[in-house]
Design brief:
With 99 residues, the protein is mainly alpha-helical. It contains 3 helices and 2 strands; from the N terminus they run αβαβα. The chain has a domain of 56 residues. Helix 2 links the parallel strand 1 and strand 2.
Length: 99
């Protein structure tokens, strides 16, 4: 976290996710061979705060509502673009951004 803050920016957006589960060759590379502990997750949050990294998406409560709102906004934009090009059904005037 300190490196991100120092070398990129304290405004760097970071996803802190505690759902890591090892797979494939991770089992041969400790400490990647086990899930993240609650203590380690709290430590990552503390390190982010100490480094001044404040744009952390922790995928906690409320995340699903935010995601649903973004998806709905994207669908609304696609509908508006389709209405503007009614002469060619199913075609969009402009490509939708990925992501």
């Amino acid at each position: 976290m300190a490196w991100l803050s120092r070398e990129l920016s304290p405004a760097t957006c970071v996803n802190l996710m505690n759902q890591y589960r090892p797979g494939a060759l991770a089992f041969y590379h400790p400490p990647l061979d086990r899930p993240l502990s609650p203590v380690e997750f709290r430590q990552a949050r503390r390190e982010a705060e100490a480094a001044g990294v404040t744009r952390c998406d922790e995928r906690g409560p409320g995340h699903q509502e935010h995601r649903s709102a973004r998806l709905a906004a994207g669908r609304d934009r696609a509908r508006r673009l389709q209405k503007g090009n009614a002469s060619r059904p199913g075609r969009l005037e402009a490509p939708l951004p990925l992501g």
